[in-house]
Design brief:
The chain has six helices and three strands. The protein is mainly alpha-helical and about 150 residues long. Strands 1-3-2 form a three-stranded antiparallel sheet. It is globular.
Amino acid sequence: MEAQAEEFLCTRIKRADQALMAHHEAVLRAYGLTMTQYTVLLALSREGGMSGAQLARSCGVTQQSMSSVLTNMGTKELIRRETSPVHAKVQIATLTDGGRALLDRAYQEVTVLERALTDAFTPSEHAMLCELLEHATAVLVQQTRPTTAPPAT
């Protein structure tokens, strides 16, 4: 007999992802940020200046969506955009002091959940969960067809 959908690993992973995203979105909303904007701030804090295309890949959104996000963030003075010294048509985004300060405040609250999750498990359970999640992610990536290949019929 087929297992109930609630018992499928993919269903459980999706429920955990939805709970995580709902938490982060609620926290970030208080700072006037979307999840994509927060991810942009994180990426720029770690990598320094990045193009819109690089940020789109990093955040998993289209370049068109990222263009809108960056325009909005520029209006809020969270980032500045300057012409690339290498390519005249490419704009490089960097954090402003205000963007870094907002990221620091939001990050402190986002990490509360990380600490709560870590504290919910013993050190060996935490290590095992991390290992199992990495393994599951590898299987999911391996099983994902390239977007250019049509499904087999």
